[in-house]
Write a structure and sequence with these properties.
This protein is an alpha+beta fold and 173 residues long. It has a single domain, classed as 4-Layer Sandwich (Deoxyribonuclease I, Chain A). 18% of the residues lie in helices and 29% in strands. The protein has helices at 64-77, 109-120, 126-130; strands at residues 7-11, 18-22, 29-37, 41-48, 51-59, 83-89, 123-125, 151-155. The strands form 2 sheets. Strands 3-4-5-6-8-7 form a 6-stranded mixed β-sheet. A two-stranded antiparallel sheet has the order 1-2. Strand 1 and strand 2 (18-22) form a beta hairpin. Helix 1 runs parallel beside helix 2 (109-120). The radius of gyration is 16 Å and the shape is globular.
Length: 173
């Protein structure tokens, strides 16, 4: 049981569906929590350090139809006018250096949509900013050709406060 700070979780119908936020700091003031797609898309608006944040955690299904549905809903959630952190397991490969297969890299329609959504919201992959040339993963499965990375997208603009993110690099709930 998590007893350090707030915990907000979303569990879906399928036993593999689950996302959540666990706050170590009790000084986080939760304003709103919305379970957009149970186990797949969770939104939390909060105040911390005098700043307002929108936190969005996603676990995108591998099926194309469900991916597109979630991405379209997610796009509108990013239009909030304050600091946004988008994180989760996107089950997509949007850059060639995130693919380990011998086949030629080809960006799918949903990969392009995720890239466009992040560009429109001025969000960038934190791992890629810190490791621009590194091919790496934060969790793996031996049968997959794409690197599994818990991705965190942050805005390009600077914040007046400091945001510390402590990520457990392992499978979702």
């Amino acid at each position: 049981m998590w007893n350090t700070g707030h915990s907000i979780i979303s569990i879906g119908e399928d036993s593999s569906d689950g996302v959540g936020f666990f706050f170590k700091n009790t000084h986080v003031n939760i304003i709103k929590k919305t379970d957009i797609i149970p186990g797949r898309l969770l939104l939390v608006d909060c105040h911390y350090g005098g700043q307002k944040f929108r936190l969005i955690n996603v676990y995108i299904a591998p099926e194309r139809t469900r991916k597109m549905q979630l991405l379209k809903k997610m796009r509108h959630l990013l239009e909030c006018g304050f600091n946004t952190v988008l994180c989760g397991d996107f089950n997509m490969v949007t850059e060639e250096n995130d693919r380990i297969a011998n086949t030629t890299f080809k960006e799918s329609r949903e990969d392009k949509l995720l890239t466009q959504i992040c560009n429109d919201a001025s969000l960038r992959d934190l791992y890629r900013i810190l490791n621009p040339q590194t091919t790496h993963f934060t969790r793996n499965a031996p049968y997959q050709t794409g690197l599994k990375r818990f991705q965190v997208f942050l805005p390009l603009c600077s914040w007046t406060g400091i945001l510390m993110i402590n990520l457990p690099f392992r499978s979702p709930i």
